[in-house]
Amino acid sequence: MSDDSDLLASALSSVGEAEGRTAALRLRDGIASLVLDVGGLSDEARDGIERRIRTALIALPGVREVRIAMTADKVGRTIIAVGSGKGGVGKSTVAANLAVALARAGRRVGLVDADIYGPSLPRIMGNSDRPELKGKRIVPVDAFGVKMLSIGQLVEPGTALAWRGPMIASALGQLMDGDWDDRELMVVDLPPGTGDIQMSLIQKWKPAGAVIVSTPQDLALIDASRAIDLFRKMNVPLLGLVENMSGYACPHCGEVSDPFGAGGAEAAAKVMSIPFLGRIPLTLSIRRDSDAGVPPAAGTGPEAEAFAGIARRLLEFQFSA
User: Fold this and answer.
1) Structural contact between residues 115 and 191, judged by C-beta atoms closer than 8 angstroms
2) Chain region(s) in the chain for CATH 3.30.300.130
3) pLDDT of residue 253
């Protein structure tokens, strides 16, 4: 190390958080230059360390300019798409609670409400706050240990969005490319069906896998098979099938009945050669808590454990992000 670089290194010792992050220190013709690794830092922390380094170096005799080249490894994010062949099967409820269960399992989770025409995650997650902008990127809001973005946070409640394909794709891009900071797992709640949003997500953001939600009856499973077929044709791995609204326990006598049938999704998963991730019961508490903005996965009891079990099975895929 030259005397000049020794001088720079000595000055940088006053910037504790810069230790181990700087390289290629050089002072020539009054210009101090270095490479700064800002990997894993938030935008705010990145700006702060850069500012303190500039202050420390510009105070040195003979330094008239400071040049900092910043590098960072891009945060790897595993995208899990949650889809269904039709509406009304509780897909958004499953997506929200799955995100909360994954966060409770120790993962850094982001949740995107890509159901542009019918956003419901702000209600389910109990946070309709309008997100802030940082530069040109939207900053997700916090809810139950999860970072979340939804178009429902950006428009007035009950507003009909009469948007065509290009506007929908643009809105999806704003959500997916928000300031997600260190999120490692991204749960994306897709609209029902197999339309533009599904195609855009698959082609541009390349999900690591898809979870399909269905109720047990044959009609819902027929529609679910279409969603499965789309992901297969687009080479997106099928992580598994969730059977929602499976079994109803009478709150008065405790007898369990099956208004939508039972076991259909598990049998269909076997036929279609995809994993069966588990069942979510049809209970009053899930409906009541979801309406109140308190996802059951954030609590305790059998409903929370049902979602936690599905999260554990997903984490068996050993996502690398």
Assistant:
1) yes
2) 3-71
3) 74
**Where do you find CATH 3.40.50.300 in the chain?**
78-315
Torsion of CA 250, 252, 253, 255, to 10 degrees: 0
pLDDT at 318: 64
Consecutive sets of 10 residues in the chain, 321 residues long: mean pLDDT of each? 77 87 90 86 83 94 92 77 89 97 96 92 94 90 96 80 79 92 94 88 93 83 88 94 84 72 79 92 90 95 95 82 44
Q: Tokens 């098979």, residue?
A: 225
Please state which of the four CATH numbers 3.30.300.130, 3.90.1140.10, 3.40.50.10240, 3.40.50.2000 is assigned to the domain occupying 3-71. Answer: 3.30.300.130
**Domain topology for 78-315:** Rossmann fold (3.40.50)
Give the tokens for residue 243: 């059977």
The structure's pTM equals 0.76
